[in-house]
Specification:
Layout lengths: L2 H16 L1 H11 L5 H33 L3 H20 L17 H10 L2 H12 L9 H22 L1 H44 L4
């Protein structure tokens, strides 16, 4: 397989699992009190952090999971738990501005947007799988550089997509954003529970296959 074909394969695979389009309604619901400049800042930082996370796992993910003996299914369940916490806050219509001024304001660009929404268990697992197939190619071989380039392009495109939330936000207005927040909170809760159940079921099956 040529490097170009390999790049297309990795790029499409990562774009599907990162799925920035699915994050647009969520960024609308979680940033309804922010101005367009703040939304652009969150989108930019989320994509920067998300890309950094995947680049780290592309370079060292296999070694980290092996060293810490972490099962990818446990990682999926943990990511689902983070999503569930975010979903519950959305359903309770928790506003960032209602917190005490003395408290640190949560950085939405890191959690939940960078992880686990963009660089979630599925994306990290995909990068680790791609990276595992390149273990013999050297840390910065041609195919490894193709993987890093695909990650950079996916998150560049993700930023452009998340920025499109600004005109959508203006079109919907405050009431429309509130409705979107409640709907997406419910869907996100269902998705997070699915991640948790899938991860736990796979863990139980894996351990039951090796009785003491």
């Amino acid at each position: 397989m040529s490097l170009f074909n390999h790049f297309i394969l990795v790029f499409i695979g990562l774009l599907v699992v990162v799925d920035p389009v699915a994050a647009v309604p969520l960024i609308l619901g979680l940033t309804k009190e922010d101005d367009p400049a703040e939304l652009r800042r969150i989108a930019w930082r989320a994509c920067m952090f998300g890309a950094a996370i995947l680049i780290f796992f592309a370079l060292a993910g296999t070694a980290v999971f092996r060293f810490l003996q972490i099962d990818l299914n446990a990682f999926r369940a943990a990511g689902g738990l983070l999503l569930l916490i975010t979903a519950l806050e959305m359903l309770r219509s928790k506003k960032r501005g209602t917190m005490d001024e003395d408290q640190d304001q949560p950085d939405l660009s890191v959690v939940p947007f960078a992880t686990p929404l963009l660089s979630g268990p599925g994306a990290i697992t995909s990068v680790v799988v791609f990276s595992t197939a390149l273990d013999g190619a050297g840390p910065l071989g041609p195919q490894r550089l193709v993987l890093l380039g695909a990650i950079a392009l996916v998150f560049s495109l993700s930023y452009l997509i998340l920025r499109s939330a600004i005109p959508i936000k203006r079109l919907l207005g405050r009431s429309g954003i509130t409705v979107v927040q409640q709907m997406m909170g419910l869907l996100l809760a269902a998705l997070s529970l699915q991640f948790i159940v899938q991860g736990l079921v796979s863990l139980v099956k894996g351990y039951s296959a090796f009785p003491p």
